[in-house]
Specification:
With about 160 residues, the chain is an all-alpha fold. The protein has helices at about 5-20, 25-40, 60-65, 75-80, 85-90, 95-100, 100-115, 125-135, 140-155, and strands at about 45, 50.
């Protein structure tokens, strides 16, 4: 059993996007759909495909910091501000599993790094294309749609 979609959106995704000054309904829907597709909203937080809600692997996490966030110190500082002060230094990749806001910020940075325009929040096929491009190149668009239906649409009233 994962996190309820409405609460994940309300208490983690939306506040994180607002903190990063990147909030819009499409970004919120995309991150919710990615969490549904990657980990069934947290039902499985660790596996060979990566860490946390968004299943981000260690090499992508490191590469994002070294090649994207390093180029923008203000953005890097904002993201680093979400990480636990001491735990991040001892195990930065563990933050992807235990720190939902940090993991959400990193997931959003991976999307932002791609520079792809966001579709409408209710364009599930468009959101699925970004998920596949950014998180699961071998994924099928219908996998995203099925995860959306099973984790978000059927388990909650409209979240967005």
């Amino acid at each position: 059993m994962g996190i309820a979609a409405k609460e994940l959106s309300q208490y983690v995704i939306r506040p994180t996007l607002l903190y990063l000054d990147c909030h819009c309904a499409s970004a919120e829907a995309l991150l919710l759909g990615i969490a549904a597709s990657q980990s069934a909203l947290g039902a499985a937080l660790h596996g060979r495909r990566g860490h946390g809600l968004y299943r981000i692997d260690e090499s992508r996490h490191t590469t994002l910091w070294d090649h994207y966030l390093a180029e923008d110190p203000e953005k890097a500082s904002l993201v680093r501000g979400l990480a636990s002060q001491h735990a991040f230094l001892r195990g930065p990749h563990l933050e992807l599993t235990v720190n939902l806001r940090y993991a959400t910020a990193i997931a959003w940075m991976l999307v932002e790094e791609q520079g792809t325009a966001l579709p409408a929040a209710d364009d599930i096929a468009g959101l699925a294309r970004i998920w596949r491009q950014t998180f699961n190149p071998h994924g099928r668009l219908r996998d995203f749609a099925e995860a959306w239906d099973s984790c978000i649409k059927k388990k909650a009233s409209p979240v967005l």
